[in-house]
Amino acid sequence: MTDITKESVLPPRSLLSQSTAQVFYRLLAALLICAALAVLSDSFLSLGNILNVLRQASLTFFIASGLTLVVLTAGLDLSVGANVALSACLAGTVIHQTGSPTLGIVTGLLAGGTVGFLNGFMVTALRIPSFIATYGMLWVLNGVTYWYMAGETIHGFPAGFRQIGSGYFLGLPIPVYLLLVFLAIGTLFAQRTTWGQEIYAIGANPVAARLSGIPVARRLLLVYTVSGTMAGLASIIFLSRLNSAEADIGESLTLPAIAAVLIGGTSLFGGVGTVFGTFIGALILTLVLNGMNLLSISANWQPLVTGIIVIIAVWLDMKTRRPTQ
Amino acid sequence: MSAAPPTAASSPAPLLELRGISKTFPGVKALDDVSFAIYPGEVHMLLGENGAGKSSLMKILCGATSADAGEFYFKGDKVAIASTADAQKLGIAVIFQEFSLVPFLDIAQNIYLGREPKGSFPGTIDRRRILADAKRVLDSIGFDIDPSVIVDTLGVAQQQMVEIAKAISQNARILVMDEPTAALSDREAELLFALIGRLKADGVAIVYISHRMAEVFALGDRITVLRDGRRIDDLRPADVTPDQLVRMMVGRNIDMTYPRHFAEAPGELLLQVKGLSSTTGISDINIEVRRGEIVGLCGLVGSGRTEVARAIFGADPVAEGEIVFDGRPISGEPDIAARRGIALIPESRKSEGLALLRSVGDNLVVSALKKLFPSGLYDPRGAQRTADGLIRQLRIATPTARQTVGLLSGGNQQKVVIGKWLAAGAKLFIFDEPTRGIDVGAKSEIFALIDRLVAEGAAALMISSEQIEICHVCDRAYVMRDGRIAGHLSRSELTEENIVRLGMHDE
Amino acid sequence: MSDTAVVSPIRSLQRIPGVAIVLVLLIALFGAVAPGFLSAANLSNVLVQSTILTMLALPMTLIIMTEGLDLSMGAVLTLTSLCVAIVSLATKSMLLGFGAAVLVGAAFGTVNGWLVAIVGIPPFVATLATLGMAQGLSLIVSDGQSVVGIPHSVRDIYSANLLGIPVPVIMGLATYGVFHGLLYHTRFGTYIFALGGNREALRYAGLSPTRLLIAVYAIGGTMAGIAGLLMTARMNSGHPTAGLGLEFDAIAAVAVGGTSFERGNGWLLGTVLGVIAVGVLRNGLNLVSLPSSVQVASVGALVIVAMFLDGLRSRS
Amino acid sequence: DGETIAVFTKNQTNPFFQTVRVGADNMAKVLNAKVLHYIPTKPDSIPEQLSQIEDVVVKKPSAIVFTPVDYKAMVPGVEKINDAKIPVVNITDRSAGGKFVSFVGADDYSLGLETGRFLLKTLGGKGNVVIIEGVKGSLTNVDRVRGFNDALKENPGAKLLASQPGNYQRLQALQVMENLMQSNAQIDGVLAANDAMAVGAIEALDGANRKAQVIGINGTKEAIDAIKSGKLLASGDYNGFAQGCLGTMMVVRSLRGQPVISEIVLKPTVITKENYQPFDIPLEQRTCPTFEDASKLGAK
Ligand SMILES: Nc1ncnc2c1ncn2[C@@H]1O[C@H](COP(=O)(O)OP(=O)(O)OP(=O)(O)O)[C@@H](O)[C@H]1O
Ligand SMILES: Nc1ncnc2c1ncn2[C@@H]1O[C@H](COP(=O)(O)OP(=O)(O)OP(=O)(O)O)[C@@H](O)[C@H]1O
Ligand SMILES: [Mg+2]
Ligand SMILES: [Mg+2]
Questions:
Q1: CA of A206 to the centre of ligand 2 (A)
Q2: What DSSP designation does C241 have?
Q3: Ligand nearest to the CA of residue B465, numbered in listed order
């Protein structure tokens, strides 16, 4: 099963932090898109728009950052979007009924984390492949959410709560601060903790990881729970930005989040990738949509253009990675 | 060995000649101006340390890898071997060190992959013929199995036999075998040797790579020694002694008797296995290991040694019985065993021992993360230091600790698997075929290392199919048969004959 | 011969996937509680409704066996379905529409194969991108509108009977027959096992994994083209969202049917059973009229339970 | 008495269809009939609704109240119902084919036109306006946007800056609005094709500390609340509740041999700060219109 020709194409997984070249080329791709947009649209380079892009990217990033860990273990979580929807609806209800944003936030994170834990349980204890387990979970969550919401929306939250998603601090949107914080936490966790290292090892070869004395099941449970909790966090941001919750909000979130992880260079086969790459992936996706809105390009073209950008980004990345060996 | 081996003088036209082959991988000069000639009807042994470039040379010979420089001559004519198809046309077949089998096809389909007999409709396969042909080939190598069995259900040894059948079926004029006996038991190895004798008589040229000295002298008509990618010499077995050969391979003297510092009195009890049975087919296993001891676990392939090792380590569920380690009972997953101080060096390094796409360094520290970084904060530089230390200690041939471990030679990969448990500081080392595919120099280094570990108060349980190794290094040994302990041999009783007698099926 | 005796019962045991058990249970359950479930008309409904998905899930099985994935299938089906509608509307010829759909499908499949095999982009990413492209093209060629007024010859394909059997069911059976023959009885099928199981072995055998991989993805695209004809016939129109998300249904059916995502182990009949199990569940729930949210959740539960049973089997 | 009515709606997520379903339930209770709901598990899925029709035809309910997920693509489904001789009433989106007992719906074009006119009147006939469209190609969206555009044509002083889709989704509308605000320094009015998008646009405006008049369509509870608090200028009443009520009423009446109205197109009402009170009643407490009211509401 070894494929030496394939292997020799890949760079050695470094012992130090992940190869800087890889991150560099990704940044370059993002910057190229920025440059193109700056030429095409006057308003692109305004501070307002840049903050705007960062804020929009943050929502995708929150979901995608937890997902990155899952993908690092060679798993996938297709239920993140549905998880965001259910968590938002539950958190929204709690805020409405208790009037306490704190309780609502706790509910959202707990709900998200619980769903993640259940995913982890199915993957570890029941040994269902993650792709399928979370696909099943996606339907179960949708069913529960539809039943719970019964076609209603929950809307109108306290102004203080709304600040989380739409407020500013020192001229920067609050989600941007959160984005930076979680980018740092995610990167440190993955690169600078033994748990992070173990996660890479599990993704690279789960059998060998188990026989190396890594508690594989516990780490996988952790990873799925973290991914779920990050979906819970995203649901809070979502709730406070949109000031409302409804059953179908998650539908359009999952594929962009997965795309962000993959454009960011994390391999679906596990063991390779970074949280920072995922951030760039989210940024690239957001830039494309932002550009199309700024240039008033018909929405019919959006999926096509996004698809082409994904190909180009991944292809460029592969091309530029080869010589770094 | 009855036919007189042809020499360069007596048959001036070699079947195939390689001249000036060089090959560089990033950071490694794998082959440097190597020339190599193969004559019909001879067994040509290729020797060298791990990483000397043997497999690389063979991959070039069969067109799987391209050389940077060099020429090929077939029966005196210059030819190009740019692909495996070219090589096949010249009648070159290979038994690879790494299996080239497809798990979910049956044996017959694997043997004839790419050469399927055509069925009546275009594109279809003549099922009856492929089975009949495969059966004939399997019979010819003395492997009695139904060719419609799915390969994935076979054990390592059986897969190796299929690999051999696949090469034989090509009616090759040149047959390359890269460590074919590494996964075989003595019985199967005997079958293979008999087969080699028959092929030789038919004029087939055989290139044979092995780390086992006994095989070199029993089979070889000629020997080529490689060191650091260069050809050192080309000679006949009659002209050298094993010691001389070893010196050529490693460039220094090696003591091949693996000296042990046997302890006068056994240490305290470390591992006690009582009436152990598992779902994988072993039953009523009773084993004791004391500190300072190396205890052998022998038996035929399939006798259940691996299963005992896995059950002790928690990799397979225990159905019955008790395992006491260091005074306290132990049960659960491998992470618990590892935390308590048990290490398992598994049988299959590629699938169970290593994360092939990660670096040598990452693989070396993976079991020791808890010990090296008790705070949970990982320090890449600390890890690097530990890895560098192990690379030096074990003499792992790698450009840096950052090299992808999958790119190392087979033997060096094995050293990485052993190395990771050294860093973890285990008390009991369970070795499952630790020297499979390891060169003589490394073998003695590893045994010296094990000796030192046990002298410092650790203990080892060692599984090996090479009984001579068990006899050399073990304080005593258990012999297994059909999933049970068939007997125990003390130091004085520990001979190859006794192991074989106890391990054989009832006759 | 003792080896065979040890080995084959294990093999056949592993071949009873959880989905077979689930399917039998579902049929028994709905047969008991849902009036009309066991009627011939209803059972033929279930089969007819399952054909389009079967036509995607079978090639998806092959693709998954190569350790690949095709996320673009639903979107490509949408696009080819629009092709059928637009071309047959313009030319008044069902065959031309069908031809165009197959061509477009095959083209997309080939591009997928090219991206995966030659450019070397991981299948998930490559086909996620072509999903976007096919979706975008569907919106662009239709401007987001349904395409109606297509000749009746198209529609008749879906509603016609041959010897009392609905034509879609015949097409589904034929598709299964072709795929079965292809995978288990041809050299190409043998190489599909090798593509996922051990690609290096193919190379050593002097075969080109690249061309084989492209062919596998091209088959996927082509089947999406053929299914596009059925989809258009079913709706008697083309619509830019018709096939959205079908690829995930197909993947779930493949997985539930016992094909593993690793090492090239695939089982075609299991895939068909997976498709039918989901169809039976949906149909049965429609007949017993539980709340729709229950229906949504039970699709997920079915997938999880089938996979769980599968896990139990393979562990024992 | 005791007829079973199968009610088909497009999805379980959009509040509008919940109002339709509540209306149908409400009316059924009054008429002593039983309602079964059929909703695709994947929102707005054409193949799924087709399958549901096929399954329901086996089950043979007394009658069907039908909202096609796509007005053109569902025609074969309607024909299947017709072939099975089950009486069916079409509500909300007018099917492009098939035989119906009656049609009950709102006039999307007039809703777009009237709400558009109201916004432009409030702006004094001038200013910079953006349109946020719903799902491309959906019947409601095409007509509503046409209405918006015609209202704009009547007011040459107003300028249309952009017309971008938000797919009836709150988040998408919010992001589209955020992006549009970057390239347009001054936006005075927002015409959103539904309330969720209107509210999304308001959130975007709030976030950027900018002000604009926003209108939506549907008259959802959320929109009414926003109108009350002055955030939303107005919403066009799509009146799903009445559609559900009247659709069920017509189909039951036809079963019972009573006269039916073959076409009811509800007159557009623009809900504003002045007239929102009657719309501010929880769904469950509303009562269905009577047969006599029906003709006043918009029989043709
Ligand atoms: N694809 C590759 N990329 C980089 N280096 C490689 C590659 N293949 C082999 N090497 C290196 O080339 C050298 C020779 O390797 P080779 O496999 O030929 O050794 P070998 O003599 O067969 O050793 P062993 O006895 O351990 O099997 C080693 O240092 C190995 O790490
Ligand atoms: N000839 C055989 N027939 C059937 N099963 C076999 C045969 N040989 C081995 N096996 C099974 O295959 C699995 C792995 O085989 P393996 O060759 O590793 O045996 P083992 O017991 O670990 O002994 P060893 O340590 O010599 O390898 C075991 O479960 C074994 O029972
Ligand atoms: Mg080698
Ligand atoms: Mg073994």
A1: 22
A2: T
A3: 2
DSSP per residue, D111-146: HHHHHHHHHHHHTTT-EEEEEEE-STT-HHHHHHHH
> Which of B232, B254, B276 corresponds to the end of one domain?
B254
pLDDT in tens, B50-96: 888 888 898 898 888 888 988 989 888 888 888 888 888 888 988 87
pLDDT at C16: 63
Neighboring chains of D (3 or more beta-carbon pairs < 8 A): A, C
Looking at the structure, tell me whether residues B1 and B87 fall in a common domain: yes
pLDDT single digits (tens) C119-153? 888 898 899 999 999 999 999 998 888 888 888 88
Residue C31: burial class (beta carbons within 10 Å; 0-12, 13-18, 19+): exposed
C6 has pLDDT over 60: no
pLDDT on residue C118: 92
Query: Is position B337 within any domain?
Result: yes
For residues B222 and B273, membership in a common domain is answered with no
State whether B335 and B373 are in the same domain. no
Report the nearest-CA residue for atom 25 of ligand 1: B50
Of the listed ligands, the closest to the CA of B410 is 1
Closest by alpha carbon to D19, among D281, D290, D258?
A: D281
Beta carbon of B28 within 6 Å of any ligand 1 atom: yes
Please give the model's pTM, rounded to 2 decimal places. Answer: 0.87
Q: Which are the contacts of D290, defined by CB distance < 8 A and separation ≥ 6?
A: none
> Which residue range is the domain that position B227 belongs to?
1-91+207-254
B399 lines ligand 2 (CB under 6 A): no
Q: Flag whether C142 is in a domain.
A: yes
Question: Which residue from D264, D232, D233 is spatially nearest to D247, judged by alpha carbons?
Answer: D264
User: Which pLDDT value is given to residue A25?
Assistant: 74
What's the domain range around C215?
A: 39-255+265-315
The CA B72 to ligand 3 mean position distance, Å, reads 21
Domain assignment present for residue C209? The answer is: yes
pLDDT in tens, B237-262: 888 888 888 888 877 776 666 777 77
Any domain includes C16: no
Q: Which atom of ligand 2 is nearest to the CA of B306?
A: 22
Last residue in a domain, options B254, B288, B319: B254
- Shared-domain flag, residues B77 and B218: yes
Residue B27 in any domain: the answer is yes
**Mean pLDDT value across residues B452-475:** 87
Chains D vs C: touching, with 3+ CB pairs under 8 Å?
A: yes
Instruction: Give the mean model confidence (pLDDT) for residues B368-376.
Output: 91
The amino acid present at B292, given as its one-letter code, is G
- Within this chain, do residues B77 and B225 fall inside the same structural domain, yes or no? yes
In single-letter form, the type of residue at position A176 comes to V
H helix runs in B114-155, sequence order: 127-140
DSSP type of residue A11: P
Q: B275 burial class (0-12, 13-18, 19+ CB within 10 angstroms)?
A: exposed
Query: Residue D82's pLDDT band (boundaries 50, 70, 90)?
Result: very high
What is the per-residue pLDDT for D168?
A: 87
How far apart are the CA of B299 and the centre of ligand 2, in A?
Answer: 11
Asked whether residue B453 is assigned to any structural domain, the reply reads: no
From the CB of B25, is ligand 1 less than 6 Å away? yes
pLDDT at A264: 86
What is the domain-level CATH number for residue C143?
1.10.3470
Q: Is B301 in the pocket of ligand 2 (CB under 6 A)?
A: yes
Q: Is residue B444 part of a domain?
A: no
For chain C, what is the mean pLDDT? 87
One domain for residues B281 and B322: yes
Mutate to test the pocket of ligand 2, among B143, B159, B161, B301 (most ligand atoms within 8 A of CB): B301
- Tell me how many domains chain C contains: 1
Residue C243, domain member (yes or no): yes
Q: Is the CB of C3 under 6 A from ligand 2?
A: yes
Q: Which residue type, as a one-letter code, is found at position D66?
A: F
CATH number at residue B270: 3.40.50.300
Chains D and A touch (3+ CB pairs under 8 A): yes
Interchain pair B370, A194: CB under 8 A? yes
A 1-60: CB under 8 A from B: 1-2, 4, 7-8, 10-17
Maximum average pLDDT range among A112-116, D53-57, D195-199 = A112-116
Whether residues D41 and C282 touch (CB distance < 8 A) is answered with: yes
Q: Which residues contact A151 (CB under 8 A, 6 or more apart)?
A: A247, D12, D13, D14, D15, D17, D18, D19, D21
Of ligand 2's atoms, which has the minimum distance to the CA of residue B154? 12
